[in-house]
């Protein structure tokens, strides 16, 4: 038996080392640099918590957090409502089931950046042109050029792109619900809404938890969508946290300062994930 | 009891699928027009298709080079991820009672909660320092960064496999490597499909890591090339759309061919994982 376990160790040690070197080490370095005034090259000194204190008074960082949260919360809600509805539709007795399922998953196969560029051109050139031709005022302006509306364009791209994946997750959840339960409910005279509320939803609640946590976490890191649609503009109206760290850290000479920002982001993301898992799982048990 | 077809759901889903298709239809139809046809109508199907935009896009962006680069990264990534990640997971799943393996499991899982921006800035310096700021470096990072999610998926699956066959094989004198290759790896086939699809999508469509690590034009992947040429496209959007369609085409083709397998693979993974 002793010989056996040494092979098991060799199976994992290289992966352990590589993961440490390329994931944990840079993360630790990030935390280390956040207490310095490093600009990406040359000498540096320790500055204690100065970067963190400066972050508190940084309007640009504050705006990035506000935008990122607004985007992530709205997108998570819309994506999950839509995905659940589509999944319910796909799980119903419908025609062309496989074709619909295939179509709804297409966007998830495609590069967000490239699709984002297509949406960018549609928002910038095609929709305004159609709007002008039809005399529809709202359409005739480019929403990506509007300080107050640009974020909606980002939400539209995010919802279009990622609903398909969540739909499949919900659909596989729905298929775990045994048909007999619905039969019994029908005999008891329960309507469609009652069936959903008392059978479907409680049984797929674990899928709901996973979906909300995954969506939210992904959307909080939003980057590709914004690079393709607005580059953070107009002004800084759609600058996400990841984009700010990228811009400031690589182009703005704020290497240490933005790693401090990333440490704050780490704490925020961790708290939200733990909070979500706790609250949503508690609700699961309640049913 | 035969249920009647739900026409409401069918109709609404049909409406929804137009929303999926319309942006892609717009891109395709515009990419097939010349400026004159565009001026007449943006969205009508033209009487003759213009493929000149495609030829120009291929030449301008050096399409086949970037296609090759994307394949060069994606194919080895998927192959190595399947072998390495499942092997690591097998070792962990069968030794969870030991401290080291239990620690390793939670080490990988907890890494899922670390946001990439924290790693991003130091990572770029590190990769440049060891001269891995290239396509091979990308492959390495995709393999390493796939570990947390895949360990989670694989370990969950392997734990449900009965140990009796392995125990019988040990009595027959098979060692751990042989057991992994001949018994475990083949049994993992359904979950391997899920992992392969998700890994391929990640490596093929990723933009941030190539943006951070690749500066050499001849090494750029498909999404990165679209980004680099964006400023040259902006006035001529037929050309831009042709280039985007070309960039999306390989994945669309794979999807059309393997659609059923891809969808069942993703759904299976979500139940087991």
UniProtKB/TrEMBL annotation, chain A:
Residues 65-276 form the ABC transmembrane type-1 domain. The keyword Transport applies. The chain crosses the membrane at residues 7-25, 64-90, 102-127, 149-171, 199-220, 255-275. SUPFAM superfamilies: MetI-like. Pfam families: BPD_transp_1. Belongs to the binding-protein-dependent transport system permease family. This is Carbohydrate ABC transporter membrane protein 1, CUT1 family (TC 3.A.1.1.-). One of its GO terms (cellular component) is plasma membrane. One of its GO terms (biological process) is transmembrane transport. Its main location: membrane. Keywords: Cell membrane, Membrane, Transmembrane, Transmembrane helix, Transport. PROSITE patterns: ABC_TM1. The keyword Membrane applies. It is found in: Cell membrane. InterPro entries: MetI-like, MetI-like_sf, UgpAE/MalFG_permease. It is a multi-pass membrane protein.
UniProtKB/TrEMBL annotation, chain B:
GO terms for cellular component: plasma membrane. Residues 67-258 form the ABC transmembrane type-1 domain. The chain crosses the membrane at residues 12-32, 71-92, 104-124, 139-158, 179-201, 237-258. Signal peptide: none annotated. It is a multi-pass membrane protein. It comes from the Bacteria. It is found in: Cell membrane. Keywords: Cell membrane, Membrane, Transmembrane, Transmembrane helix, Transport. InterPro entries: MetI-like, MetI-like_sf. Pfam families: BPD_transp_1. One of its GO terms (biological process) is transmembrane transport. Belongs to the binding-protein-dependent transport system permease family. This is Carbohydrate ABC transporter membrane protein 2, CUT1 family (TC 3.A.1.1.-). It comes from Halanaerobium salsuginis.
